[in-house]
Specification:
A hairpin with a 2-residue loop joins strand 5 (about 100-105) and strand 6. The protein has a six-stranded antiparallel beta sheet with strand order 3-2-1-6-5-4, sandwiched between helices. The protein has helices at about 10-20, 50-55, 60-70, 125-140, and strands at about 25-30, 35-45, 55, 75, 100-105, 110-115. The chain is globular, with a radius of gyration of 14 Å. It has one domain: 2-Layer Sandwich (Beta-Lactamase), CATH 3.30.450.40. The relative contact order is 0.20. The chain has four helices and six strands, in the order αββαβαβββα. InterPro entries: GAF, GAF-like_dom_sf.
Length: about 140
């Protein structure tokens, strides 16, 4: 079992990114005190975005909306998306195809897991299910202390 301070969160994220043929990813833990998603691990995120993604309010941005809805949020091309879900700074990642899922322990929100590709991409239903399963597997370890 991975603990909340274990550096293997980065290894888990790196392996997940590789398993999906992606180049970027984030893992956030829900802080119930302020209802913000706090960054636990990241890969491929530009340094300029780090202050923005350290703490994301539930309901804001791709990860925040996935957390609020407790369902996957996908964009085929983040660079051309006009839905208003992604925040303007997200385009700095150069990511196009993106998928964020809630990390759920039953119905309890623990955080979010997001991955992205540098090309336009529609994730398949099977890929979404795989990412949801991966998120559910780590949920107990991601719960706040």
């Amino acid at each position: 079992m991975i603990s909340s301070t274990d550096p293997t969160w980065a290894a888990f994220l790196s392996q997940t990114i590789a398993d999906f043929g992606c180049t970027t990813g984030t893992l956030h833990r829900l802080d119930p005190a302020d209802r913000h998603l706090k960054l636990v691990a990241h890969q491929g995120i530009p340094e300029a975005l780090m202050p923005i993604i350290q703490s994301i309010p539930v309901g804001k941005g791709i990860a925040g909306v996935a957390a609020e809805r407790k369902e996957p949020v996908e964009m085929c091309n983040l660079q051309t998306d006009t839905s208003g879900v992604a925040k303007p700074g997200a385009k700095q990642t150069q990511v196009q195809g993106t998928l964020a899922v809630p990390v759920l322990d039953g119905d309890r929100l623990c955080g979010t897991l997001g991955i992205g590709k540098l090309v336009p991409y529609d994730f398949t239903a099977e890929e979404k299910d795989r990412l949801i399963r991966a998120a559910r597997e780590i949920a107990p370890a991601l719960l706040p202390a």
